[in-house]
Specification:
The complex is a heterotrimer. Chain A is 48% helix and 18% strand. Chain A is an alpha+beta fold. In chain A, the strands form 2 sheets. In chain A, strands 3, 4, 5, 6, 7, 8, 9 and 10 form an 8-stranded antiparallel β-sheet that branches. In chain A, strands 1, 2, 11, 12, 13 and 14 form a 6-stranded antiparallel β-sheet that branches. In chain A, a hairpin with a 3-residue loop joins strand 8 and strand 9. By secondary structure, chain C is mainly alpha-helical. In chain C, helix 2 (37-67) packs antiparallel against helix 4 (94-129), helix 12 (396-415) runs parallel beside helix 15 and helix 15 packs antiparallel against helix 19. Classes of the chains: A alpha+beta, B mainly alpha, C mainly alpha. Chains in contact: A-B, A-C, B-C. The complex binds protoporphyrin IX containing FE and copper (II) ion (CU).
Chain lengths: 457, 122, 644
């Protein structure tokens, strides 16, 4: 059985099947990216610093990467149509040549993209409680809570505890400067590397998980029996719904604060209502300071921003304000000429209110400041979590990147394995390239919009 | 689409031409977009210094021009069938409706009016 | 046409030669990873029926909790899975109710009705009706089914995760959906996350399907089958395809963004300053829950037309055939369905009147919502008028099709008030809404789907379904459907809130209002049936008993159908021709069952699709594929689309 109009166009519609198919698919892609662009606009318009939102960060990207990628994609678009022209003229070799360039462009694009992504993941921002922001590079794993535990309390009515298994056990201390490095070996409850536990009655606990499940079943049964007893007027038994296990020897964890709900000097509680008891070892974040960003602090109050007490360095502070005033003076002539004051929005603008800070210092600790956890409102690297801008940036460019990858794979397949079909039915092959090319151009077209909205404005 | 050799030669030239045009447009966007008041003075400064509405608008207009070039020439929409146009027309309508209505839903003229009146009395 | 026309059962057919050179593909290629639209249609159909049964089962448990919130669930309490979710006494917990409610909605809509209506009927019937050998992209078709299958499987698997399945309603609103299940260390394997993953698969499935359907209908129509000669069914499928194609992507966006929120801690849908149980949300904030709602309902509303259009389409085929009358206003219906498809994209925010949306936009959406009722009413009216003066065969297919009209009518008319935001102030999130849309989808769409099964069953099996069992299926179903959903409207207007696991008993002010005095006839029957002391007045909350009892009886009423479906495959009354209903559309021109490639001779359409009881004709029907004697026959396709 053969499907009609696979290669040749139908007379009344003037189209072959795949052509209709790809355009329909592109229509749905328009809606997909349309939804994303709508989300972008909605989020951007919705940012309201008066409500405590972070201002929409503009020009935080390395523009040259976006620019280069735009050129690369445009070039690849030209190459795709050229390869199609060659196929139409039945030049297989030349088709392969142009298509090869397309694939090379796609690879370049991905490489540039990954450079850009990587820089963001290694850059951290700390929002302090008054809204001033410290940007820089966190030293080691100090953005985690270091805690030495000697016992653990679990909720026997809750789910199976899991977070303690997902935090890092502290590795051997580095002799040189006493920082916690690495933390690769993931700790799991079942793992022998954790100390064993004993329960309240001094009994040894073998496998933690099975112990937990058995205990939980017991408690639930007792509770049920109690209810029945209560109905029948019989006596009920007292039930402990939480249990504490003692560790045979103290053990240290580095807990991701994202997974904890509360902690104090002697306890650390995770989201799954598991609490470690012991002592807090280190709860300050050491960060190599690059920039201070005071967009969220009113211009007049920036001198008293919380960040300066942490930086605690008059020279650096003075320098920062010099830079800031310099930036302000740069934009002043524009408004002077029109007889206007500089609008507040411009004063608080990132170009003015974000400046680098240079801390003098010696050795490893040059430029490092210590930020206590309770001064922090929010901490994250500049990954998608950092704020809605980064979230939509990563989502849109990530999805776009997936499209590039998918398109490149399909085109590469045609280039390497299309010969057979080409020999059998060259027109069919040309159609395929046309259809693949349509997809590729669409991906380029999306990027044409992503470049200005993500990188420039 | 006609596919005689001559036509193809014409296409080839056209594609290169459009490619260079797109390069040029990209450079223009870049100049409008980056911090002009440090580098270029006010020639490319459509609004106030820094990121500003008019700059953004100009940047988007250029992007739209580029996008139409890609769609019309590279994607052959300039001589495509009516059917495809119909599909794309409706798609565009719905995409625009999504973006616009979602935005307008935030906008409340009556409440604004009431707030205005209230502010006059307080 | 290809010669590979061997039918599955090896039934020989007169009038066409077999080509024995072709070897049948191996079993798994032919029935499991098949690319044949008919097999795929049947795969869709059976999978969807299984999911419908699961959704039905969830609902029966929910109805127990509503009717008897203080009594343990019978039968289930000792099953291992339920032990973890029922409370110590074996009663349904709020958590379990939420889970079942959310999954009932999700399964019924995305895994039951849509795959059955669009996937099964669309796949099986559309290519046959347009005289195509298969779908335009058979392998894409197969991929579409398997995406659906994977998505469905993930949904079911999520029940067995430690977190249980999703619990935040089928709408999965953020920020609740974002923060639920966050206590689990493995965020990937939680019900909420898996719901999103499964949705991405289901959306992909629908998109692939939609591309395929539209291309097929545009490009593979038989010779002579011009746009206005297409049966209404095909038109409805075309519009449905566009709804899926353009409405689903924004939901995919929403799903991806919610996934980011859950897995990577972004704040797309989390506002600044959110705190849960007094603990501040650990995220940047700055997002908007309303954005989720917009993206969701941009799909959500067209989706309800995806549920109903195929139903109307099926009824539109069944009624002309069994009344022996042309479909009244075929053209009008086509235009109506196009207008309806267009408008359905710009009414979505009528689900969001209470979100503090601006008045101007609210007015816009009220207007469009009222407007969209016009084409809907046109469709139903045309169906109704089509029966006028016909010689109606009241067989099972027709019974369900006829019942569809008033049931869908109730659903539609109860929806009209919901178009106005001042009324929604009162009715939002009450059982009135539940009653309204269930009238549309349950006795509405489901009945139409049953009609379709009874109607097209002979095409594939060469046998009729049992009429007697069909009646045993129909009448109790009709009665109990109304038993379930009519009281919902009453309760809802009194203010019963939806998603209440105790059926409203916590709100005794509302639920304890008297519905019928103790001396009324209604009360005496009620008290007798439910063995209560005579003279007890019936309170509004007591209606729960009627609804729940009806729901379980409704389940029993489906038994004859299930028996019928399997029994008739082997033992049903044999059809003596390929066109046993004496119908006019092209699907009846194929052998029974249609072989791979469908048609033996190239099908040509000579006339419009519903030529029943044409004055002067020798028979009471003239099939589309029958060449007439007079000069009006025109097999040439019109060049409707700009030829270049
Ligand atoms: C046939 C008999 C059916 C019965 C008796 C039934 C019953 C129910 C009940 C009791 C609820 C829960 C109401 C609440 O607690 O708020 C519900 C919710 C729902 N049902 Fe059905 N249902 C049936 C069929 C269907 C079908 C065929 C669909 C298909 C589309 C469907 C879609 C839904 C949806 C979307 C919800 C809302 C879930 C939510 O609150 O998130 N139902 N149904
Ligand atoms: Cu709606």
């Amino acid at each position: 059985m053969e499907i009609p109009y696979e290669v040749t166009a139908r007379r009344d519609t003037g189209l072959y099947n795949a052509k209709i198919g790809i355009w329909l698919f592109l229509a749905s892609e328009v809606m997909l990216f349309g939804g994303l662009f709508s989300a972008y606009v909605f989020l951007r318009v919705g940012v309201d610093p008066a409500q405590g939102d972070l201002p929409w960060p503009t020009s935080v990207q390395k523009v040259w990467i976006g620019f280069a990628n735009t050129l690369v994609l445009i070039a690849s678009s030209v190459f795709v149509v050229l390869s199609w022209v060659e196929l139409k003229q039945r030049n297989w070799r030349k088709f392969q040549f142009w298509m090869g360039l397309v694939i090379a462009c796609a690879a370049t694009f991905m490489v540039l993209k990954s450079i850009e992504y990587k820089a963001k993941f290694t850059h951290t921002g700390i929002v302090l409680t008054d809204g001033s922001v410290i940007e820089g590079e966190v030293i080691g794993k100090t953005n985690r809570i270091e805690f030495e535990a000697d016992s653990v309390t679990v909720n026997l009515l809750g789910g199976v505890p899991g977070f303690v298994g997902s935090v890092y056990k502290k590795e051997k201390e580095d002799g040189d400067h006493g920082e916690a490095h690495g933390g690769h070996g993931e700790v799991e409850w079942e793992k022998a590397s954790l100390p064993g536990f004993t329960d309240a009655s001094g009994q040894e606990v073998g496998n933690f998980k099975s112990w937990f499940l058995a205990e939980r079943a017991k408690v639930k049964n007792t509770l049920a029996a109690n209810k029945r007893a209560a109905r029948n007027g019989k006596e009920t038994v007292k039930v402990e719904t939480s249990a504490t296990l003692k560790a045979k020897e103290p053990f240290t964890v580095l807990a991701d604060p994202h997974f904890t709900v509360a902690h104090g000097a002697d306890s650390l509680a995770f989201r799954d209502v598991v609490t470690l008891n012991g002592k807090l070892v280190n709860d300050t974040v050491s960060i190599h300071l690059h920039e201070v960003d005071l967009q969220m602090v009113p211009f007049e109050n920036q001198k008293d921003a919380q960040v300066w007490t942490l930086v605690n360095n008059e020279a650096a502070k003075t320098e920062w304000f010099e830079h800031r005033n310099h930036a302000r003076d740069h934009i002043k002539p524009y408004y002077d000429k029109r007889g206007l004051d500089i609008p507040r929005k411009k004063l608080q603008d990132r170009h003015v209110s974000l400046q680098a800070v240079h801390l003098e210092g010696e050795g490893e600790h040059a430029g490092v400041i210590e930020v206590p956890r309770d001064a922090i409102r929010f901490i994250s690297n500049h990954g998608p979590r950092y704020n809605v801008y980064y979230a939509i940036y990563f989502t849109m460019t990530g999805l776009h990147g997936l499209h590039v990858l998918g398109g490149a794979l399909v085109l590469a397949y045609m280039m390497f394995f299309g010969k057979k079909l080409y020999l059998k039915n060259p027109e069919h092959m040309a159609n395929r390239v046309e259809v693949g090319g349509l997809f590729w151009h669409f991906v380029d077209l999306v990027w044409i919009f992503l470049f200005p909205i993500m990188y420039l404005f | 689409m006609a596919s005689s050799s001559e036509d193809m030669e014409k296409h080839r030239k056209q594609y290169w031409f459009v490619g260079w045009l797109l390069f040029g447009c990209t450079a223009l966007t870049l100049i409008v977009g980056i911090k002009q008041y440090y580098n270029f003075g006010e020639i490319f400064d459509f609004g106030a210094p820094g990121v500003d509405g008019p700059d953004f608008a100009v940047g988007l207009v250029i992007a739209c021009i580029k996008a139409s070039l890609v769609a019309l020439i590279f994607m052959h929409l300039n001589h495509e069938r009516g059917l495809i146009y119909k599909v794309l027309l409706f798609t565009t309508i719905f995409a625009v409706a999504l973006m616009a209505l979602v935005l307008f839903a935030k906008w409340n003229p009556i409440h604004e009016a009431i707030a205005n009146i209230q502010s006059q009395f307080s | 046409m290809s010669a590979n026309a061997t039918s599955a059962e090896g039934q020989a057919h007169e009038g066409h030669g077999h080509d024995h050179d072709h070897h049948d593909p191996p079993f798994w290629r032919k029935y499991i990873f098949s690319t044949d639209h008919k097999i795929i249609g049947i795969q869709y159909g059976f999978t969807a029926l299984v999911f419908l049964a699961i959704g039905f089962f969830l609902m029966m448990v929910m109805r127990w909790s509503i009717a008897f919130p203080d009594r343990p669930v019978p039968l289930l309490a000792d099953l291992p899975w339920f032990q973890a979710w029922l409370d110590a006494d074996g009663k349904v917990t709020g958590e379990l109710y939420n889970m079942f409610g959310a999954m009932h909605g999700t399964i019924m809509i995305f895994l039951g009705i849509v795959p059955l209506a669009f996937g099964a009927f669309g796949n099986y019937v559309t290519p046959l009706q347009i005289g195509a050998p298969d779908m335009a992209f058979p392998r894409v078709n197969m991929a579409s089914f398997w995406c659906y299958f994977v998505g469905g499987t993930l949904m079911i698997v999520s029940f067995f995760l430690p977190s249980g399945a999703a619990k935040v309603g089928w709408t999965n609103y953020s920020p609740l959906a974002t923060t639920t299940d966050q206590q689990f260390a493995n965020q990937f394997w939680t019900g909420q996350t898996q719901w999103l993953f499964a949705m991405v698969f289901l959306i992909t499935s629908s998109l692939l399907g939609a591309v395929n359907f539209i291309t097929t209908i545009i490009n593979l129509r038989a010779r002579g089958l011009t746009w206005m000669r297409l049966p209404f069914f095909v038109w409805a499928m075309l519009v449905t395809g566009f709804l899926l194609l353009l409405a689903f992507p924004p939901l995919e966006v929403a799903a991806i963004m919610q996934l980011m929120d859950r897995m990577f801690g972004t704040s797309f849908f989390v506002p600044t300053g959110l705190s849960i149980n007094g603990i501040p949300f650990d995220g940047s904030g700055g997002g908007s829950p309303l954005l989720y709602q917009h993206l969701f309902w941009f799909l959500g509303h067209p989706e309800v037309y995806v549920l109903i259009l195929p139903a109307i389409a099926i009824v539109g085929e069944v009624i002309p055939c069994h009344t022996r009358r042309p479909l009244w206003g075929h053209k009008t219906m086509i235009y109506a369905v196009m207008v309806l498809g267009f408008l359905s994209f710009i009414v979505w925010a009528h689900h969001m009147y209470l979100t503090g949306m601006g008045t101007a936009v609210s007015t816009f959406f009220q207007t469009t919502t009222v407007l969209i009722s016009v084409p809907s009413v046109i469709l139903v009216t045309c169906l109704l008028i089509s029966m006028w003066g016909g010689r109606i065969r009241f067989n099972s297919a027709m019974l369900f099709a006829v019942a569809f009209i008033p049931m869908f009518g109730i659903g539609g008319l109860t929806g009209l008030p919901l178009a106005f935001n001042h009324i929604v102030l009162h009715l939002h999130d009450t059982y009135y809404v539940i009653g309204h849309f269930h009238y549309v989808v349950a006795p509405g769409t489901l009945f139409a789907l049953f009609a379709g099964i009874y109607h097209w069953f002979p095409k594939h099996t060469g046998r009729f379904m049992s009429e007697r069992l069909g009646r045993w299926h129909f009448w109790p179903s009709l009665v109990f459907m109304n038993g379930v959903f009519l009281p919902m409207l009453i309760q809802g207007m009194a203010g019963f809130h939806r998603r209440a696991f105790d059926g409203g008993s916590a709100y005794s002010q509302i639920s304890g209002q008297e519905f019928m005095g103790g001396d009324s006839l209604f009360a005496s029957i009620f008290n007798f049936v439910f063995q209560r002391a005579a003279g007890t007045p019936v309170e509004l909350i007591d209606l729960n008993l009627i609804m729940s009892a009806s729901a379980w009886l409704l389940a029993i009423a489906q038994v004859p159908f299930i028996v019928n479906l399997f029994w008739s495959i082997l033992h049903g009354e044999k059809c003596h021709s390929d066109n046993p209903w004496r119908a006019t559309t092209l699907e009846w021109a194929t052998p029974t069952p249609p072989p791979h490639g469908n048609f033996i001779d190239e099908p040509v359409a000579y006339r419009s699709p519903y030529e029943y009881s044409v004055p002067g004709a020798t028979d009471d029907f003239t099939p589309q594929f029958e060449k007439g004697a007079d000069g009006t026959d025109n097999p040439e396709p019109e060049t409707a689309l700009a030829a270049h």
